[in-house]
Amino acid sequence: MDASQLIMIFISMVFINNFILSKFLGLCSFIGVSKETGPAMSMGLAVTFVTTMSSIITWLIYRFVLIPFDITYMRTISFILVIATFVQLVEMFIRKTSPHLYKFFGIYLPLITVNCAVLGVAVLNSETFFSGSRIMPGSFIFSVVQGFFAGAGYCLAMLLMSGIRERLELVRVPRSFKDVPLAFVIASLMSLAFMGFSGFKF
Amino acid sequence: MKRLFNEFKKGITIENPTFGLVLGLCPTLAVSTTVVNAIGMGIAATFVLLGSNIFISSLRNFIPGRIRIPCYIVIIATFVTINEMVMKAYFPALNRSLGIFVPLIVVNCIVLGRAEAFACKRPVLDAIFDALGMGVGFTIALIIIAAIRESLGNGTILGIPLVKGFEPATMMILAPGALLTIGILIGIINFAHIQQKTRREITKERFDGR
User: Is residue A7 included in any domain, yes or no?
Assistant: First the structure.
Protein backbone atom coordinates (compact mmCIF):
# COMPACT_ATOMS: atom_id res chain seq x y z
CA MET A 1 0.00 0.00 0.00
CA ASP A 2 1.34 3.44 -0.84
CA ALA A 3 0.17 6.95 -1.51
CA SER A 4 -0.21 6.50 -5.25
CA GLN A 5 -2.96 3.93 -4.76
CA LEU A 6 -4.82 6.29 -2.47
CA ILE A 7 -4.56 9.06 -5.07
CA MET A 8 -5.88 6.62 -7.66
CA ILE A 9 -8.90 5.94 -5.47
CA PHE A 10 -9.44 9.67 -5.04
CA ILE A 11 -9.40 10.42 -8.78
CA SER A 12 -11.47 7.39 -9.63
CA MET A 13 -14.17 8.00 -7.00
CA VAL A 14 -14.53 11.76 -7.40
CA PHE A 15 -14.10 12.18 -11.15
CA ILE A 16 -14.04 9.03 -13.25
CA ASN A 17 -16.57 6.88 -11.39
CA ASN A 18 -18.51 9.70 -9.79
CA PHE A 19 -21.29 8.03 -7.83
CA ILE A 20 -24.08 10.14 -9.25
CA LEU A 21 -22.94 11.04 -12.72
CA SER A 22 -21.56 7.72 -13.86
CA LYS A 23 -22.87 5.07 -11.48
CA PHE A 24 -26.41 6.36 -10.81
CA LEU A 25 -26.21 5.82 -7.06
CA GLY A 26 -28.13 8.25 -4.87
CA LEU A 27 -30.00 9.75 -7.78
CA CYS A 28 -33.28 10.29 -5.90
CA SER A 29 -31.77 12.66 -3.36
CA PHE A 30 -29.67 14.26 -6.09
CA ILE A 31 -32.79 15.31 -7.99
CA GLY A 32 -34.88 15.92 -4.87
CA VAL A 33 -32.62 18.11 -2.70
CA SER A 34 -30.56 19.99 -5.29
CA LYS A 35 -32.83 23.00 -5.71
CA GLU A 36 -30.80 25.33 -3.48
CA THR A 37 -27.11 25.38 -2.61
CA GLY A 38 -27.51 25.43 1.20
CA PRO A 39 -29.58 22.27 1.67
CA ALA A 40 -27.66 20.55 -1.13
CA MET A 41 -24.41 21.16 0.72
CA SER A 42 -25.85 19.90 4.03
CA MET A 43 -27.09 16.77 2.31
CA GLY A 44 -23.72 16.25 0.63
CA LEU A 45 -21.80 16.59 3.90
CA ALA A 46 -24.23 14.31 5.72
CA VAL A 47 -23.82 11.68 3.00
CA THR A 48 -20.02 11.98 3.14
CA PHE A 49 -20.06 11.48 6.90
CA VAL A 50 -22.34 8.46 6.69
CA THR A 51 -20.49 6.80 3.80
CA THR A 52 -17.17 7.15 5.65
CA MET A 53 -18.49 5.83 8.94
CA SER A 54 -20.47 3.03 7.34
CA SER A 55 -17.38 1.95 5.38
CA ILE A 56 -15.59 1.50 8.72
CA ILE A 57 -18.47 -0.34 10.34
CA THR A 58 -19.26 -2.62 7.43
CA TRP A 59 -15.55 -3.47 7.04
CA LEU A 60 -15.46 -4.56 10.68
CA ILE A 61 -18.64 -6.61 10.24
CA TYR A 62 -17.41 -8.25 7.06
CA ARG A 63 -13.92 -8.98 8.38
CA PHE A 64 -14.71 -10.14 11.90
CA VAL A 65 -18.21 -11.59 11.66
CA LEU A 66 -19.18 -12.63 8.15
CA ILE A 67 -15.86 -14.15 7.04
CA PRO A 68 -14.95 -16.11 10.22
CA PHE A 69 -18.41 -17.67 10.39
CA ASP A 70 -18.50 -18.21 6.61
CA ILE A 71 -21.82 -16.44 6.15
CA THR A 72 -20.88 -13.88 3.50
CA TYR A 73 -24.25 -14.44 1.83
CA MET A 74 -25.76 -12.50 4.75
CA ARG A 75 -23.96 -9.40 3.46
CA THR A 76 -26.95 -7.41 2.19
CA ILE A 77 -29.17 -8.01 5.19
CA SER A 78 -26.48 -7.30 7.80
CA PHE A 79 -25.16 -4.19 6.03
CA ILE A 80 -28.55 -2.54 5.63
CA LEU A 81 -29.49 -3.23 9.25
CA VAL A 82 -26.20 -1.91 10.61
CA ILE A 83 -26.38 1.20 8.44
CA ALA A 84 -29.99 1.92 9.42
CA THR A 85 -29.18 1.51 13.11
CA PHE A 86 -26.09 3.66 12.84
CA VAL A 87 -27.93 6.48 11.09
CA GLN A 88 -30.67 6.35 13.72
CA LEU A 89 -28.09 6.52 16.52
CA VAL A 90 -26.28 9.46 14.95
CA GLU A 91 -29.54 11.30 14.54
CA MET A 92 -30.46 10.77 18.20
CA PHE A 93 -26.96 11.76 19.32
CA ILE A 94 -26.96 14.97 17.29
CA ARG A 95 -30.44 15.92 18.43
CA LYS A 96 -29.38 15.64 22.08
CA THR A 97 -25.97 17.27 21.85
CA SER A 98 -26.06 19.98 19.23
CA PRO A 99 -29.25 21.69 18.11
CA HIS A 100 -27.29 23.77 15.61
CA LEU A 101 -25.80 20.73 13.91
CA TYR A 102 -29.19 19.04 14.05
CA LYS A 103 -30.69 21.94 12.17
CA PHE A 104 -27.81 21.81 9.69
CA PHE A 105 -28.25 18.22 8.61
CA GLY A 106 -30.54 16.47 11.05
CA ILE A 107 -33.54 16.43 8.77
CA TYR A 108 -31.51 14.90 5.94
CA LEU A 109 -30.13 12.05 8.01
CA PRO A 110 -33.22 9.78 7.96
CA LEU A 111 -33.35 10.15 4.19
CA ILE A 112 -29.86 8.73 3.95
CA THR A 113 -30.83 5.30 5.34
CA VAL A 114 -32.46 4.38 2.06
CA ASN A 115 -29.96 6.26 -0.08
CA CYS A 116 -28.44 3.71 -2.42
CA ALA A 117 -25.08 5.51 -2.32
CA VAL A 118 -24.44 4.40 1.26
CA LEU A 119 -25.23 0.73 0.78
CA GLY A 120 -23.54 1.00 -2.60
CA VAL A 121 -20.24 2.01 -1.00
CA ALA A 122 -20.44 -0.83 1.50
CA VAL A 123 -21.15 -3.45 -1.17
CA LEU A 124 -18.51 -2.01 -3.48
CA ASN A 125 -15.89 -2.10 -0.70
CA SER A 126 -16.67 -5.71 0.08
CA GLU A 127 -16.44 -6.59 -3.60
CA THR A 128 -13.23 -4.76 -4.48
CA PHE A 129 -11.15 -5.30 -1.36
CA PHE A 130 -12.21 -8.85 -0.48
CA SER A 131 -12.23 -11.62 -3.03
CA GLY A 132 -14.53 -14.25 -1.59
CA SER A 133 -13.14 -14.79 1.87
CA ARG A 134 -9.61 -13.64 1.04
CA ILE A 135 -8.64 -10.24 2.44
CA MET A 136 -6.54 -7.79 0.49
CA PRO A 137 -3.68 -6.23 2.50
CA GLY A 138 -4.48 -2.69 3.61
CA SER A 139 -8.16 -3.17 2.81
CA PHE A 140 -9.27 -1.21 5.87
CA ILE A 141 -7.53 2.02 4.81
CA PHE A 142 -8.70 1.54 1.21
CA SER A 143 -12.30 1.00 2.30
CA VAL A 144 -12.35 4.12 4.45
CA VAL A 145 -10.71 6.24 1.77
CA GLN A 146 -13.07 4.90 -0.89
CA GLY A 147 -16.06 5.64 1.35
CA PHE A 148 -14.87 9.16 2.05
CA PHE A 149 -14.14 10.05 -1.56
CA ALA A 150 -17.38 8.51 -2.82
CA GLY A 151 -19.12 10.96 -0.48
CA ALA A 152 -16.87 13.77 -1.68
CA GLY A 153 -17.80 13.02 -5.29
CA TYR A 154 -21.46 13.08 -4.32
CA CYS A 155 -20.90 16.44 -2.61
CA LEU A 156 -19.21 17.86 -5.71
CA ALA A 157 -22.02 16.78 -8.04
CA MET A 158 -24.63 18.13 -5.61
CA LEU A 159 -22.90 21.50 -5.38
CA LEU A 160 -22.52 21.88 -9.15
CA MET A 161 -26.11 20.83 -9.80
CA SER A 162 -27.64 23.11 -7.16
CA GLY A 163 -25.62 26.06 -8.49
CA ILE A 164 -26.99 25.47 -11.98
CA ARG A 165 -30.55 24.93 -10.78
CA GLU A 166 -30.52 28.17 -8.79
CA ARG A 167 -29.75 30.04 -12.00
CA LEU A 168 -32.41 28.10 -13.88
CA GLU A 169 -35.12 29.56 -11.69
CA LEU A 170 -34.71 32.79 -13.65
CA VAL A 171 -34.88 31.20 -17.08
CA ARG A 172 -37.98 30.66 -19.15
CA VAL A 173 -38.29 26.99 -20.06
CA PRO A 174 -41.14 25.05 -21.70
CA ARG A 175 -43.79 24.29 -19.10
CA SER A 176 -43.60 20.53 -19.55
CA PHE A 177 -39.84 20.53 -18.99
CA LYS A 178 -39.87 22.59 -15.81
CA ASP A 179 -38.03 21.17 -12.77
CA VAL A 180 -37.40 17.43 -12.87
CA PRO A 181 -37.10 16.73 -16.63
CA LEU A 182 -34.78 19.68 -17.11
CA ALA A 183 -32.71 18.60 -14.12
CA PHE A 184 -32.20 15.23 -15.79
CA VAL A 185 -31.15 16.81 -19.07
CA ILE A 186 -28.64 19.01 -17.23
CA ALA A 187 -27.35 16.02 -15.28
CA SER A 188 -26.87 14.31 -18.63
CA LEU A 189 -24.75 17.19 -19.92
CA MET A 190 -22.74 17.22 -16.68
CA SER A 191 -22.16 13.52 -16.93
CA LEU A 192 -20.99 13.99 -20.52
CA ALA A 193 -18.48 16.53 -19.23
CA PHE A 194 -17.32 14.16 -16.49
CA MET A 195 -16.76 11.45 -19.08
CA GLY A 196 -13.85 13.56 -20.27
CA PHE A 197 -11.96 12.40 -17.20
CA SER A 198 -12.06 8.80 -18.31
CA GLY A 199 -11.01 9.54 -21.87
CA PHE A 200 -13.79 9.80 -24.40
CA LYS A 201 -13.90 6.90 -26.82
CA PHE A 202 -16.00 6.90 -29.97
CA MET B 1 -62.57 -9.78 -9.18
CA LYS B 2 -62.87 -6.44 -10.95
CA ARG B 3 -61.31 -4.73 -7.93
CA LEU B 4 -58.32 -7.05 -8.02
CA PHE B 5 -57.87 -6.40 -11.71
CA ASN B 6 -57.94 -2.67 -11.02
CA GLU B 7 -55.19 -3.07 -8.41
CA PHE B 8 -53.17 -4.84 -11.06
CA LYS B 9 -53.90 -2.32 -13.79
CA LYS B 10 -53.07 0.85 -11.86
CA GLY B 11 -49.44 -0.22 -11.43
CA ILE B 12 -49.05 -0.36 -15.18
CA THR B 13 -50.94 2.80 -16.07
CA ILE B 14 -51.56 5.78 -13.75
CA GLU B 15 -49.37 4.74 -10.84
CA ASN B 16 -46.54 3.37 -12.96
CA PRO B 17 -43.56 3.36 -10.59
CA THR B 18 -41.14 4.95 -13.03
CA PHE B 19 -43.22 7.37 -15.07
CA GLY B 20 -46.10 8.06 -12.69
CA LEU B 21 -44.57 7.99 -9.22
CA VAL B 22 -40.92 8.60 -10.31
CA LEU B 23 -39.57 6.02 -7.84
CA GLY B 24 -36.58 3.72 -8.02
CA LEU B 25 -34.66 5.64 -10.63
CA CYS B 26 -31.16 4.47 -9.76
CA PRO B 27 -31.59 0.86 -10.92
CA THR B 28 -33.81 1.99 -13.80
CA LEU B 29 -31.08 4.11 -15.29
CA ALA B 30 -28.16 1.87 -14.42
CA VAL B 31 -29.38 -1.42 -15.86
CA SER B 32 -31.31 -0.21 -18.90
CA THR B 33 -28.30 -0.52 -21.20
CA THR B 34 -29.72 -3.58 -22.95
CA VAL B 35 -33.22 -5.04 -23.14
CA VAL B 36 -31.99 -8.36 -21.70
CA ASN B 37 -30.67 -6.63 -18.57
CA ALA B 38 -33.92 -4.69 -18.27
CA ILE B 39 -36.03 -7.85 -18.35
CA GLY B 40 -33.75 -9.55 -15.81
CA MET B 41 -33.89 -6.62 -13.41
CA GLY B 42 -37.67 -6.33 -13.86
CA ILE B 43 -38.22 -9.98 -12.97
CA ALA B 44 -35.87 -9.77 -9.98
CA ALA B 45 -37.63 -6.68 -8.63
CA THR B 46 -41.07 -8.24 -9.21
CA PHE B 47 -40.03 -11.30 -7.24
CA VAL B 48 -38.81 -9.24 -4.29
CA LEU B 49 -41.89 -7.04 -4.43
CA LEU B 50 -44.22 -10.05 -4.49
CA GLY B 51 -42.47 -11.79 -1.60
CA SER B 52 -42.26 -8.73 0.60
CA ASN B 53 -45.84 -7.64 -0.13
CA ILE B 54 -47.22 -11.11 0.75
CA PHE B 55 -45.25 -11.31 4.00
CA ILE B 56 -45.85 -7.77 5.14
CA SER B 57 -49.53 -7.92 4.38
CA SER B 58 -50.00 -11.22 6.22
CA LEU B 59 -48.01 -9.95 9.22
CA ARG B 60 -49.65 -6.53 9.24
CA ASN B 61 -51.52 -7.18 12.51
CA PHE B 62 -48.40 -8.38 14.34
CA ILE B 63 -45.82 -5.75 13.41
CA PRO B 64 -45.81 -2.93 15.98
CA GLY B 65 -46.28 0.47 14.37
CA ARG B 66 -43.23 2.15 15.84
CA ILE B 67 -40.64 -0.31 14.56
CA ARG B 68 -42.38 -1.19 11.33
CA ILE B 69 -39.71 0.21 8.98
CA PRO B 70 -36.87 -1.98 10.35
CA CYS B 71 -39.21 -4.98 10.17
CA TYR B 72 -40.01 -4.22 6.54
CA ILE B 73 -36.32 -3.82 5.75
CA VAL B 74 -35.51 -7.22 7.25
CA ILE B 75 -38.28 -8.90 5.25
CA ILE B 76 -37.24 -7.18 2.03
CA ALA B 77 -33.54 -7.93 2.60
CA THR B 78 -34.37 -11.61 3.09
CA PHE B 79 -36.01 -11.80 -0.31
CA VAL B 80 -33.19 -9.83 -1.90
CA THR B 81 -30.71 -12.34 -0.48
CA ILE B 82 -32.73 -15.28 -1.85
CA ASN B 83 -32.86 -13.52 -5.19
CA GLU B 84 -29.10 -12.90 -5.11
CA MET B 85 -28.33 -16.56 -4.39
CA VAL B 86 -30.68 -17.89 -7.09
CA MET B 87 -29.27 -15.47 -9.64
CA LYS B 88 -25.68 -16.33 -8.76
CA ALA B 89 -26.43 -20.04 -9.11
CA TYR B 90 -28.54 -20.14 -12.27
CA PHE B 91 -27.90 -16.88 -14.18
CA PRO B 92 -24.24 -15.99 -13.55
CA ALA B 93 -23.95 -13.89 -16.73
CA LEU B 94 -26.97 -11.76 -15.85
CA ASN B 95 -25.70 -11.45 -12.27
CA ARG B 96 -22.38 -10.14 -13.56
CA SER B 97 -23.94 -7.55 -15.84
CA LEU B 98 -26.40 -6.29 -13.19
CA GLY B 99 -23.56 -6.32 -10.66
CA ILE B 100 -23.97 -4.14 -7.61
CA PHE B 101 -27.62 -3.40 -8.41
CA VAL B 102 -28.80 -6.87 -7.40
CA PRO B 103 -28.12 -6.33 -3.66
CA LEU B 104 -29.25 -2.74 -4.05
CA ILE B 105 -32.86 -3.81 -4.75
CA VAL B 106 -33.15 -3.66 -0.97
CA VAL B 107 -33.00 0.15 -1.03
CA ASN B 108 -35.18 0.44 -4.11
CA CYS B 109 -37.86 2.96 -3.12
CA ILE B 110 -40.58 1.03 -4.99
CA VAL B 111 -40.40 -2.00 -2.69
CA LEU B 112 -40.35 -0.07 0.59
CA GLY B 113 -42.86 2.41 -0.81
CA ARG B 114 -45.42 -0.28 -1.64
CA ALA B 115 -44.89 -1.91 1.76
CA GLU B 116 -45.55 1.35 3.55
CA ALA B 117 -48.31 2.69 1.31
CA PHE B 118 -50.21 -0.46 0.44
CA ALA B 119 -49.26 -3.84 1.87
CA CYS B 120 -49.40 -2.81 5.54
CA LYS B 121 -53.10 -1.91 5.28
CA ARG B 122 -54.65 -4.38 2.85
CA PRO B 123 -55.43 -8.11 2.77
CA VAL B 124 -53.00 -10.56 1.19
CA LEU B 125 -54.84 -11.04 -2.12
CA ASP B 126 -54.93 -7.30 -2.82
CA ALA B 127 -51.26 -7.03 -1.96
CA ILE B 128 -50.38 -9.83 -4.38
CA PHE B 129 -52.14 -8.12 -7.26
CA ASP B 130 -50.64 -4.76 -6.33
CA ALA B 131 -47.15 -6.28 -6.31
CA LEU B 132 -47.73 -7.96 -9.69
CA GLY B 133 -49.04 -4.73 -11.20
CA MET B 134 -46.17 -2.65 -9.86
CA GLY B 135 -43.63 -5.27 -10.92
CA VAL B 136 -45.03 -5.51 -14.45
CA GLY B 137 -45.27 -1.72 -14.69
CA PHE B 138 -41.65 -1.37 -13.60
CA THR B 139 -40.55 -4.03 -16.08
CA ILE B 140 -42.42 -2.36 -18.94
CA ALA B 141 -40.90 1.03 -18.12
CA LEU B 142 -37.44 -0.55 -17.97
CA ILE B 143 -37.99 -2.25 -21.32
CA ILE B 144 -39.13 1.01 -22.96
CA ILE B 145 -36.05 2.90 -21.73
CA ALA B 146 -33.73 0.02 -22.58
CA ALA B 147 -35.22 -0.35 -26.06
CA ILE B 148 -34.59 3.33 -26.80
CA ARG B 149 -31.05 3.22 -25.44
CA GLU B 150 -30.06 -0.09 -26.98
CA SER B 151 -31.43 0.73 -30.42
CA LEU B 152 -29.79 4.17 -30.56
CA GLY B 153 -26.60 3.30 -28.73
CA ASN B 154 -25.84 -0.13 -30.11
CA GLY B 155 -28.11 -0.48 -33.13
CA THR B 156 -29.69 -3.66 -31.79
CA ILE B 157 -32.71 -4.86 -29.80
CA LEU B 158 -32.26 -8.07 -27.78
CA GLY B 159 -28.96 -8.42 -29.63
CA ILE B 160 -30.62 -8.46 -33.09
CA PRO B 161 -29.30 -5.74 -35.43
CA LEU B 162 -32.02 -3.38 -36.64
CA VAL B 163 -30.95 -1.22 -39.59
CA LYS B 164 -27.92 -1.73 -41.81
CA GLY B 165 -25.51 1.16 -42.16
CA PHE B 166 -26.62 2.89 -38.96
CA GLU B 167 -23.70 4.28 -36.98
CA PRO B 168 -24.73 3.83 -33.32
CA ALA B 169 -24.14 6.72 -30.89
CA THR B 170 -22.17 5.08 -28.07
CA MET B 171 -23.17 7.91 -25.74
CA MET B 172 -26.68 6.49 -25.46
CA ILE B 173 -25.61 3.31 -23.65
CA LEU B 174 -23.29 5.25 -21.36
CA ALA B 175 -24.34 7.36 -18.39
CA PRO B 176 -25.30 10.61 -20.21
CA GLY B 177 -27.65 8.78 -22.56
CA ALA B 178 -29.62 7.31 -19.67
CA LEU B 179 -30.14 10.68 -18.01
CA LEU B 180 -31.08 12.28 -21.33
CA THR B 181 -33.58 9.54 -22.16
CA ILE B 182 -35.38 9.66 -18.82
CA GLY B 183 -35.42 13.48 -18.86
CA ILE B 184 -37.01 13.64 -22.29
CA LEU B 185 -39.48 10.82 -21.52
CA ILE B 186 -40.70 12.55 -18.34
CA GLY B 187 -40.92 15.80 -20.31
CA ILE B 188 -43.10 14.15 -22.97
CA ILE B 189 -45.37 12.64 -20.31
CA ASN B 190 -45.73 16.03 -18.62
CA PHE B 191 -46.56 17.56 -22.00
CA ALA B 192 -49.30 14.96 -22.56
CA HIS B 193 -50.73 15.66 -19.09
CA ILE B 194 -50.79 19.42 -19.69
CA GLN B 195 -52.43 18.97 -23.08
CA GLN B 196 -55.07 16.73 -21.57
CA LYS B 197 -55.76 19.21 -18.80
CA THR B 198 -56.14 22.22 -21.11
CA ARG B 199 -58.39 20.22 -23.42
CA ARG B 200 -60.59 19.31 -20.49
CA GLU B 201 -60.74 22.96 -19.41
CA ILE B 202 -61.69 24.08 -22.92
CA THR B 203 -64.55 21.58 -23.16
CA LYS B 204 -65.69 22.62 -19.69
CA GLU B 205 -65.72 26.30 -20.73
CA ARG B 206 -67.75 25.52 -23.84
CA PHE B 207 -70.17 23.49 -21.79
CA ASP B 208 -70.55 26.30 -19.25
CA GLY B 209 -70.98 28.90 -22.02
CA ARG B 210 -73.89 27.02 -23.46
Answer: no
